[in-house]
Amino acid sequence: MSTRIDSPGPIFARPDEIPEAVRLAYYDQGARYLIGGEVHTWSGPCQEVLSPVCVLENDGASQHRLGHYPLMTATESIQALESACQAYDRGCGEWPTMSVADRIRHVESFIPRMEAVRDEVVRLLMWEIGKTLPDAAKEFDRTVVYIRDTIQALKELDRTSSRFAVEEGFVAQVRRSPLGVVLSMGPYNYPLNETFTTLIPALIMGNTVIFKPPKYGVLLHAPLLQAFAESFPPGVVNTVYGEGPVVIAPLMESGRIDVLAFIGSARVASILKHQHPRPNRLRCVLGLEAKNAAVVLSHADIDLAVKECVLGATSYNGQRCTAIKIIFVHRSIASSFCERFVTEIGRLKVGMPWEEGVHITPLPEAGKTEWLTKLVSDAKSGGAEVINRGGGTVDHTLFYPAVLYPAKPDMQICKVEQFGPVTPIVQYDNDDEVIAWLNQSPFGQQLALFGTDARELSRLIDPAVNQVCRVNINSQCQRGPDKFPFTGRKDSAEGTLSVSDALRVFSIRSLVAAKATEVNEGIISEIVSGRHSRFLSTDFIF
Ligand code: G3H
């Protein structure tokens, strides 16, 4: 059952009203984990997984029970660590010393195994985090494309590394080498894609990996465990499940994690970093909070700005790090913008993630609707109003998008990352107000500028590019295309991810150099022609 935002109505279905094609029987395969190249079945305590989607029973609506996953202890966590360390073997293991061509073959063999479980993963993704069916499918397919693009990017990187450099009387070969054991932790909003955008580059560069799925979006990884086990040597990929303080703290405190790839909150990232006893050894790749603003300038094409801002603020219920989380509109067009924005928001379809054309779906995080309600009340007490009909209505796990106007920069909703469907609109008179907001913001990921006047746009582009890492003109903020650099300043990120940047982030340049004497050149030639070394080699990957 679906409804529109401006006319809230019953949306949750009875079990027999759910189309058979999208139903999900209780998933009893979740209590498995991968350590040492084997998929084990867990017999200890488990965490029950509830869907954000409620189903109607005689006693009312309640969150659908989906399955369960292991609540591991520090013992299994250390087993995973031992397994990863053993496979890496201080850089002498089979995987880190394998030729690039062979590592690529292993990753290639993983792709058809992953594709074979597409439907199961997509269905779990939809039920576990409430992502619409087309978006869940898109997340899966985008991830497969990302893996293929990563392979291509590594081939290109390796081609440039397979020649010798001659400089100032030295001859050298420079290659990228792995860093060690990587701990990879993705976020709940892209539990597959964002985990894999660190896991795959880390693997293909020769590191061994322990990955922990996010709090929501765990079961969907279970169908992939066998694919990992069959595609990689034992210990190269390991999984841990459970409470962060129980299973992650021992890993970080051991000092044996070489790279932390974490997408989540700055608070948790900081805790994890501080747990590591040798911070200088730890590399971090972090994707953290963002508060991307849209700025609608006085000469903007209002219809275009409205269309992009609605998408930017409400896709996957605003639960994207790149979502538009605050809108500044020039006072001269503010009322016209708000009117059209509210009309478009009102047309969005609210309902179950499998329904055609649905846009707004239930939220997975416990306590989320209460937190959003609090932000709305705080803004109201500061003088803003919910200007869209039905905005802010709560139905169990569902929150009807609320548009707050006129919002003021000092309101809570303008300062925090709401990560949900509440959009504050602030009116402004001159660019300095927007620049001042950007400068004081603790976040620095992206900005979206809407305007048609080149000079007017330029006045904001130049100060903005030194506060954020991507300025979008007349389009919403977004991560893609995945070949573009994706990063942030201040508390929004550490390190840069893109298909090619990720390969660099999970590796370091090592070189073998020698004075270019006749003897040394003879030795190097013999090593290369005799294929005595995998590092010193001119093999070319096609
Ligand atoms: O949540 C953050 C994602 O990386 C955003 O990706 O802009 O493609 O939705 P997206």
Can you offer a commentary on this structure?
The strands form eight sheets. The chain has a seven-stranded mixed sheet with strand order 16-19-20-14-13-22-23, with helices on both faces. Helices cover 36% and strands 23% of the residues. It is built from 17 helices and 26 strands. Helix 6 crosses helix 16 (499-505). It is an alpha/beta fold. It is globular and about 80 Å long. Strand 22 (446-450), helix 15 and strand 23 (470-473) form a beta-alpha-beta unit. The structure holds glyceraldehyde-3-phosphate.
Helix-strand blueprint:
Blueprint: E1 3-4, E2 32-35, E3 38-41, E4 46-57, E5 60-70, H1 74-88, H2 94-97, H3 100-116, H4 118-129, H5 133-161, E6 165-167, E7 170-178, E8 181-185, H6 193-204, E9 208-212, H7 225-231, E10 237-239, H8 244-247, H9 249-253, E11 259-263, H10 266-275, E12 283-287, E13 292-296, H11 302-314, E14 324-330, H12 334-347, E15 349-350, H13 368-381, E16 385-386, E17 394-395, E18 398-399, E19 402-405, E20 422-428, H14 431-440, E21 443-444, E22 446-450, H15 454-464, E23 470-473, E24 489-490, E25 493-494, H16 499-505, E26 507-515, H17 518-529
Parallel strand pairs: 8-9, 8-11, 9-10, 11-12, 13-14, 13-22, 14-20, 19-20, 22-23
Antiparallel strand pairs: 1-15, 2-3, 4-5, 6-7, 7-26, 12-25, 16-19, 17-18, 21-24
Helix pairs in contact: 3-5, 3-7, 4-5, 5-6, 6-16, 11-12
